Amino acid sequence: MTACVWVIVFRLNTWFFGAFEWAELVINWIFLPAAVRLLSVMLFGWRGALGIWFGTMYLTHGTVFESNLFEALGVATLSALGPLVAVSLTMRHLKIQLDLQGLTANRLVVFAVVGALCNVIPHNLFFWIIGIAANPFDGVFPMFIGDILGTVIVFYTLRSLLVALERFMQRPSY
Amino acid sequence: MKTPKDPSQTYLRFLNLVSAIRGLPAFPALDALEERILNGLAATWATGTKVTVLEAMELTLNTSPTTVHRRLKSLRQKGLIELREDEVDSRIKYVMPTEIAKTYFDKMGQCLDMAARG
Predict the structure, then answer these.
(1) Scanning every residue of chain A, which has its alpha carbon at the shortest distance from the alpha carbon of B26?
(2) How large is the ipTM?
(3) What is the largest CA-CA distance in chain A?
(4) Buried b (16+ CB within 10 A) or exposed e, A103-141
(5) How many CA atoms lie within 13 A of A170 on its CB side?
(6) Would an 8 Å CB–CB cutoff place A167 in contact with chain B?
(7) pTM, full prediction
(8) Do B17 and A43 touch (CB under 8 A)?
(9) What is the C-alpha to C-alpha distance for residues A100 and A135, in angstroms, rounded to an integer?
(10) Interface-testing mutation among B21, B22, B107, B114, with chain A (most A C-beta atoms within 10 A)
């Protein structure tokens, strides 16, 4: 399920925000799937990460990584491991229990920032190592902003849906 | 990171996650005193009168001017009021509503309308 949602949101992101791409299909100033990555790992743990891995492997078709299995594997593994490490570190640091008890809105923001960092740094290093980036620093800022903006947009969309749902459920029935 | 084996734990995770997302701020939260001060200011602004900082500090009954001053600072940080200098005497500063404050009053008005309609 995670893989499907990841692929769909990735495609939607390219469709809606393709104009904001900083590097084709790799870095975008608005990256909605960053929220999917975080939420799926927070909900389903390593199974969510596995979904991200399969989804990313599928998405590498038709991109610069298609011709090289090592590169495709690298990007998929980093996409899956990043949120896993971020969620694990943040949960430990904020002393959040396994069932996410103690999670608040402010702490969710911390998860989003750590998630973005754990995604941005390894990815840019990898892009530099395989030679598609001139250096490991140029893409860090746009990718970080993209992850944060994407996560905020998805979180606030979900929040609005929850509020709308609450209002709908509270409507008096005649 | 461990994955919950028990499906009910995944559900608990879902509930806690939903609760955290629902708790994301949509509007700067005001405490009771900030709300009282803002309402007092709104009543004065509605008459077309300008309110100086000193007047604002005396506006709320049974509250020390120091406390009100502190809350005026927090209201300013939350973007609900701004201070504007007098055109003639720069020592005088007026407390003015921001666009956020105007939106806040509009929303409160809409809520009252909805409540009145039942």
Answers:
(1) A156
(2) 0.76
(3) 65
(4) beeebbbbbbebbbbbbbbbbbebbbeeeebeebebbbe
(5) 7
(6) no
(7) 0.66
(8) yes
(9) 38
(10) B21
Cα distance between residue A8 and residue A33, in whole Å = 9
Which tokens sit at B93? 């500063």
Asked whether the beta carbons of residue A159 and residue B21 sit closer than 8 angstroms, the reply is yes
- Note the pLDDT of residue B5: 59
What is the residue whose two structure tokens read 């078709």? Answer: A61
Cβ of A39 within 8 Å of Cβ of B17? The answer is yes
> At a CB cut-off of 8 Å and minimum separation 6, what does A12 contact?
A32
Pick from A70, A46, A76, A44: nearest CA to A58: A76
* Residue type at position A156: Y
Q: Is the pLDDT of residue B96 over 90?
A: yes
Beta bridge partner(s), residue B81: B97
Q: How many residues does chain B have?
A: 118
CA torsion A55-A58-A62-A63 (nearest 10°) is: 50
Provide the pLDDT confidence category of residue B83 given band limits of 50, 70 and 90. very high
Q: Does A59 touch chain B (CB under 8 A)?
A: no
- Residues of chain A neighbouring B4 (CB-CB closer than 8 A): 45, 98-99
Task: Give the A:B interface size as CB pairs under 8 Å.
Answer: 65
